[in-house]
Amino acid sequence: MATPVRTPGGTPVRTPGGTPVRTPGRTPVRSPGHVAAHGHGGVGDSPPRPDGTLKVAGEFAYASDLWIDGMLWGATLRSPHPRARIVALDVGPALALPGVRAVLTHEDVPGSRFFGIDGTGDQPVLAIDQVRHEGEPIALVAADHPETARRALKRIAVGFEVLEPITDARAVIADPEGLRVQPLGGITRYQPVRVGDVDAARARAEVVVSGDFEVGIQDQAFLGPESGLAMPSEDGGLDLYVSTQWMHNDLKQIAPCLGLAEDEIHMTLAGVGGAFGGREDLSMQIHAGMLALHTGRPVKMSYNRHESFFGHVHRHPASMRYEYGATADGGLVYADVEIVLDGGAYTSSTLNVTGNAASLGVGPYEIPNIRIDAYGVYTNNPPCGAMRGFGAVQACFAYEAMMDKVAAACGLSPLEVRRRNAVSQGSRLATGQVIDAPAPLAEMLTRLEAIPMPPAADASDLRNLPGGVSQTTHGEGVVRGVGYGVGIKNICFSEGFDDLSTARVRLEVIGGEATALVHTAAAEVGQGLVTLEAQIARTELGVRRVTLAPADTTVGDAGSSSASRQSYMTGGAVKTACEAVRGVLLERAAARFGHHDLTLVGGTVVSREAGELASLEEVLGDAVIEETREYHHRPTQKMDPATGQGNSHTQLALCVHRAVVDVDTELGLVKVVEMAAVQDVGKILNRLSLEGQIHGGSAQGLGLALMEEIVVSGGVVRNPSFTDYLIPTILDMPPMRLDILENPDPAAPYGLRGAGEPPTLSSTPAIVAAIRDATGRALGRVPVRPEHIVA
Amino acid sequence: MDFLRPLTWADALAAKAAHPGATPIQGGTDVMVEINFDARRPEALLDLTSVPELTEHETLEDGTLRVGAGVPYARLIADLGDRLPGLAQAARTVGSPQIRNRGTAGGNLGAASPAGDCHPPLLASDAVVEAESSARGTRLIPAAEFYLGVKRNALEPDELIRAIRTAPASGPQYFSKIGTRNAMVIAVCSFAIALHPGERRVGTGVGSAAPTPRRATAAEEYLSGELDWDGRGPLPDPVARRFGELVREAAAPIDDVRGTADYRRHALAVLARRTLAWAWNDHRATREEAS
């Protein structure tokens, strides 16, 4: 066995109950250690990220950097076909290659041969007799060298009987029994929403507008491909270092497949290079575990960019039909909506993505009569699941285009028609849920209108023009357009899910200074949660020194880093645990000083009556105060399966965008000149991080509007590379003007409102509306391609 | 896979003669991508980055510029932008600053991708590729004869590209490229124009719209005859339109994941008209400045 390089993980960790939990015997190089976040900056300040310098300097240890002596390299054989029977499989030639240590198929899965993120368990660990999407894993190789593993894959002989792929989602809805992709179906979820009487309302409408809309498949395009290291432990268990979004949910899926109990697997979060939903589903976790258990050696698996396009789910493509009726003065009378989401071959998150699309299908507008039919379906197209915005993005593109159609038909400005129908606190959503926190949409639109317009482009610098330095225009054909977008997103998990978070906080004096250790299993995926955890500890405990323990499974579940929920949930858990620690501290102080009117102000214990009593350090002495707390959001309800009614959402968040574009109308090229956004976040916890989230979300929405699409033909991906799957560059993403509101949500910690996803929703429709304004084209599909503009 | 790193041009030629299957590598911006994707597995890599001759450029006695095949895009822009503006504009559209520091026009020629950005300006300016082998010495191949098919060029297995030879611009030159984002993008299609007023002639190059980069010969001939070279009068709109149509007709594009054939044809006509207008206006302005 190799000499351990770093062994902080070797210390026994105790759970709140005092039971020792097994921890790794040896720790890989470049695995996460404690992060010191010493300094100033509580809640509301903008301290720098504790991992920021390392990331900027290129020294941060990402999962792909994991290393331990003696490790093997795993590789995955994937299906080239979207639908085929496997009629022969011979691993012999691969096993015969020198340096190959294992070649495994579905027959070698130690436990359950299926897994799935939402308990559906319909996805094979390795294909069993058939493949249902391009890139489906069929076999695994472990070898001494990654190149050997790659060559071995080519020597696995697979006989396919290729079948015609099922790729038309609407055809599946028409014939779900005949076009069954897998045993579950057919249709993954059908969720209707019914409010009032649409047919009766249609007769009363003075204006009727309709449109068909499509959203292409967007990829999360995180920069750190899937990667991790699995190490067998001496007691027959497994240590897993993986870049993921939700370790405890991973564990629930991994353990049964490996035939291990959950407490026999110890997971540690390895450095995550972006997530955006794409790491909610498992990628290499079970595979690396199988290879490690089989060989008795540590096994590393790292996808390259090409494999990554097949190694995670994408945003559901959507096909949508909308019809709205309104009064002549622009008041919405009814909405008749059909939303079809193609989830690909396995369930993944399609159940909940469909629920979101249904419940938020008409956006933040008051409409008295609503009929929404939302479908998630199985096909042999690429598997789709969670991505930032999660079902709300697709609908938002359609309903915002519809608002512009109503405006045009009624002779109103886009802003006016939105204000006229805007929800506010007390309004009902399509689900009947009353918005019981501030939702000042009309005010937000008025504030957006007040933001100054950008000046005309300075055409003397090509970088300011459509096409940039590719020099397609010196100004010829360029027309400016302005468009608006509004989005509403549910924050935290919905429909009855209790997505709790857990935090353990320890306070002690180290080197003469009170120090807080914060330990959660929450995944830092780049969003800045580590910064915020330290800020909360400083605010609640009055300390300067905060250390963040590596996220692992020796502490309780933190839920997923998704649904814009970690500031709310893990922030809430850290806050609550800090309050508990503070309570114990003040009890100690009360016992010592005889005062019972104590508070902690900064780092000082203060009596209301007697004034300042002692510093934190004096009160603590040699004591260690450690408290672990779970945090739960308020309960929610499932949507009624027939009417869609129910208080299904925890919290709702709004963002509005104005996009200004210059379009080369002859060539169809677009330069987004500026985006302005107004978002209500309840409480600004860290303005720098928050602005980064709004900028980043807007950029991801810009990508969907203009360029980001996994192009699929007959179930086969045509552009699995960053050469042809384009994401915005600095010359595509314009400067932004932000107006951030703080109307607190009394139910949430600090009054905060989740902020990561809403800007991703509203930027896309705003940009497309601006292109429509410049060109007069209908543009019912995103991404908008040059062909669509000049056609 | 063998890795050969000659330190002199003579050694490089000898290595290529000894290993005709070796793939030359300069910046690696094409070759390494293909190797990483396992799209090719050459028997050897011939690393030319240590051959000093290739990174130099000079002016020959007849005034021709001789630009080493290893001069990176960044230096084409900085050192030669004034004399080879079309090539410099094309170089400026390649990748990111890091890529432009590494990538070379020689590599672009070696890869011979129809989407290579250097090809259209080399065609428009009548550039000549200087190839060399240890057995037969130097061979001069006009750019228009260099591209034989998709990623196929006229080099013999024992030949290496030594340099590009081209006259300094004698008139306005422009390069224009369509991409679906505003930087770091492969050409959907591209177009280059060079006016050669002394010869009363127009050069063109069309990129990413046929199996090889190609000249729009009929468009060149038509325009050369129509332009008011002496009077330098305004460009008649019908002439510009006809030129655009002839450029469009010179293309033989396909539908692919980057764009449709119809769009490529349409865009080429627009680019041809626009670049012609810029070039002609420059030409007219030159006279006005001179007078």
TrEMBL record, chain A:
Gene3D superfamilies: Aldehyde oxidase/xanthine dehydrogenase, a/b hammerhead, Aldehyde oxidase/xanthine dehydrogenase, molybdopterin binding domain. SMART domains: Ald_Xan_dh_C. It holds the Pfam family MoCoBD_1. Residues 57-164 form the Aldehyde oxidase/xanthine dehydrogenase a/b hammerhead domain. Residues 1-52 are annotated as: Disordered. Residues 1-38 have a biased composition (Low complexity). One of its GO terms (molecular function) is oxidoreductase activity. PANTHER family: XANTHINE DEHYDROGENASE, XANTHINE DEHYDROGENASE SUBUNIT D-RELATED. This is Xanthine dehydrogenase subunit D.
TrEMBL record, chain B:
Residues 93-113 are annotated as: Disordered. InterPro entries: CO_DH_flav_C, CO_DH_flav_C_dom_sf, Diverse_Substr_Oxidored, FAD-bd_PCMH, FAD-bd_PCMH-like_sf, FAD-bd_PCMH_sub1, FAD-bd_PCMH_sub2, Mopterin_DH_FAD-bd. Residues 1-171 form the FAD-binding PCMH-type domain. The keyword Transmembrane helix does not apply. It comes from the Bacteria. SMART domains: CO_deh_flav_C. Keywords: FAD, Flavoprotein, Oxidoreductase. One of its GO terms (molecular function) is oxidoreductase activity. This is Xanthine dehydrogenase family protein subunit M.
